[in-house]
C-alpha cells in the first residue's frame, strides 16, 4: 500500500512538471500561432456541434452565458474569447486538481493540500501571464483571474474526490468490522 502511494506521488509530481511545461509552451507561442490554434479548436467544436447539437440545449446556453459574464466580462463576447478563457480555466482546473492531490498524498493534510493546490498554480499563472509579454502577446488580469478560478475549481474537485474516496473506505471498513462481529457472535 505504501509503495502504491509513493508511486502515485511520483506520477503526480511528473504530471505537475509536465503540465507546467505545457502551460509555458502555450504561453510562449506567438499571437499568430495562438490565434491559429484557437481557430482550429473553434472549427473542431463547430463540427462536433453539428453532430451532437449540444449548443441548442438550454443548459448549454446558460453555462456559456454565465461563463462569459464571469470570466470575459460580457455575455456578447465572441467564440474566440470564449475558447481562450475556457482553455485558461480548463488548464488551471487540471493543474489545481493534480497539485491538490499531489500535496495531499505527500502531507496527508487537507489544509496544506488546499492552500498549495491554489497557491502554486496561482504563482505559475502570474508567471505565465508575465511570460506572454516576451512573446508579443497581451497579458491580462482577467486571464489571471480565470486561471485562479480554474485553480480553485480543480482544487475543490480534488478535495471532493478525496472526500468520496474517504467515505467509501470508511464504509468498507465498517462493513468488514460488522461482519467480523457477526461471525464472532455466532
From TrEMBL:
Sequence ranges assigned to domain VanZ-like in this UniProt record: 13-161
Keywords, comma-separated and alphabetical: Membrane, Transmembrane, Transmembrane helix
Entry keyword annotation includes Cell division: no
Listed transmembrane segments: 7-26, 89-106, 111-128, 148-171
Stretches assigned to coiled coil: none
Signal peptide region: none
UniProt name for this protein: VanZ-like domain-containing protein
The organism of origin for this protein: Fervidobacterium thailandense
Amino acid at each position: 500500500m505504501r509503495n502504491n502511494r509513493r508511486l502515485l506521488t511520483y506520477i503526480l509530481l511528473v504530471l505537475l512538471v509536465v503540465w507546467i511545461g505545457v502551460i509555458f509552451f502555450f504561453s510562449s507561442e506567438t499571437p499568430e500561432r495562438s490565434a491559429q490554434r484557437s481557430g482550429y479548436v473553434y472549427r473542431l467544436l463547430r463540427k462536433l456541434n453539428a453532430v451532437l447539437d449540444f449548443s441548442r440545449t438550454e443548459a448549454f446556453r446558460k453555462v456559456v452565458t454565465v461563463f462569459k459574464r464571469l470570466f470575459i466580462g460580457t455575455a456578447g463576447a465572441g467564440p474566440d474569447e470564449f475558447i481562450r478563457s475556457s482553455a485558461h480555466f480548463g488548464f488551471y482546473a487540471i493543474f489545481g486538481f493534480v497539485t491538490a492531490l499531489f500535496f495531499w498524498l505527500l502531507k496527508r493534510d487537507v489544509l496544506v493540500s488546499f492552500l498549495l493546490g491554489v497557491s502554486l498554480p496561482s504563482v505559475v499563472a502570474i508567471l505565465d501571464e508575465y511570460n506572454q509579454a516576451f512573446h508579443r502577446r497581451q497579458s491580462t488580469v482577467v486571464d489571471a483571474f480565470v486561471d485562479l478560478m480554474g485553480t480553485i475549481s480543480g482544487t475543490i474537485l480534488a478535495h471532493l474526490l478525496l472526500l468520496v474516496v474517504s467515505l467509501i473506505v470508511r464504509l468498507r471498513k465498517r462493513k468488514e468490522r460488522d461482519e467480523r462481529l457477526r461471525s464472532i457472535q455466532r
